[in-house]
Design a protein that fits this description.
By secondary structure, the chain is of the alpha/beta class. It has nine helices and 14 strands. The longest helix has 14 residues. It catalyses: L-lysyl-[protein] + 3 S-adenosyl-L-methionine = N(6),N(6),N(6)-trimethyl-L-lysyl-[protein] + 3 S-adenosyl-L-homocysteine + 3 H(+).
Length: 297
């Protein structure tokens, strides 16, 4: 089978939005090339041969350029393609993805790799990057994982908003959460999440996956809510998260570009959240906040 490799030249600031555009158009996973260490980067993805990618690339370019209307810098917004056979596609993923210790206790391992934990408390998450929305190597995902590792004490009920690959739900359960509700508006994300749950059978029974737009219509109460999504989408989620959290519950947000951090902090405080921690990795921010408990001002 032949695959078409598609490359988008954009910026770190716009990268999450570009990934969302690619996935909505049927991309089969993504990887990042930011070896220059600045704000410019390439996002590489693959489409099956049945997809008219050359024609699609013109539409994708316009959509990437259109991100400027939402306050994101799309950079060069160049889109170009080339054809690879199936072996080349598989080799591309294997070349770039290897076991990565992303936090003190969590290591993400591609499904084809043999890996032996280096310590008794190390938790291994198996992922298939070829079908997944995230691999744990992007700064926004790392920040969210660090937030989970800090927040979870054991026995929590967690809601994962915009689950993508399911990595945050899997991580939460490996860290001690008793159950997770994983929501995503995209059916392809749900399929990707299901693939990765099968790779982590011990956590699979604890995670319920469903299609849902943010927390619209959700009346479940949780101890912890985590959302690794764009800041523009976090804004309408904030009041929903406040309503769905138990008193004292923790809200972890990530995917916040630097010039949106103050906005999210303000929106959280205006809703009644107490800011506990603000973390930064490259140009990305994560904010951990909690819903005040009874008697807390």
């Amino acid at each position: 089978m032949e695959w078409t490799e598609l490359v988008v030249e954009t910026t770190l600031e716009a990268s999450d939005a570009v990934v969302e555009i690619l996935m909505q158009n049927g991309a089969g996973g993504v990887r990042f090339d930011d070896e220059n260490g600045n704000d410019d980067l390439k996002i590489i993805t693959y489409f099956p041969e049945s997809k008219p990618v050359v024609e699609l690339s013109r539409d994708l370019k316009q959509k990437v350029l259109g991100l400027a209307e939402f306050g994101l810098n799309p950079g060069k917004a160049n889109v170009f393609v080339k054809t690879n056979d199936d072996a080349s596609w598989v080799d591309a993923w294997k070349k770039y993805y290897h076991p990565v210790r992303v936090t003190r206790y969590l290591t993400i391992v591609p499904s084809w790799e043999e890996y032996v934990p280096q310590s008794a408390d190390e938790q291994v998450i198996l992922l298939d990057p070829g079908k997944a929305f995230g691999t744990g190597t992007h700064p926004t995902t790392k920040l969210a994982l660090l937030g989970l590792e800090s927040a979870i004490r054991g026995g929590e009920k967690m809601i994962d908003v915009g689950t993508g690959s399911g990595v945050l739900s899997i991580a939460a359960c490996k860290l001690g959460a008793k159950e997770a509700l994983a929501y995503d508006v995209d059916d392809e994300a749900i399929k990707a999440c299901d693939v990765n749950l099968k790779l982590n059978p011990e956590e699979r029974s604890k995670i319920h996956v469903a299609t849902n737009d943010l927390l619209n219509g959700v009346d479940e109460k949780a101890d912890l809510i985590c959302a690794n999504i764009l800041a523009e989408i976090i804004v309408p989620l904030i009041p929903q998260a406040f309503n769905c959290l138990n008193d004292g519950g923790i809200f972890i947000t990530s995917g916040i570009i630097s010039d949106k951090a103050d906005l999210i902090e303000e929106k959280l405080q205006n809703e009644g959240f107490v800011i506990d921690q603000i973390s930064r990795m490259k140009d990305w921010f994560s904010i951990v906040a909690h819903k005040p408990g009874e008697g807390e001002e």
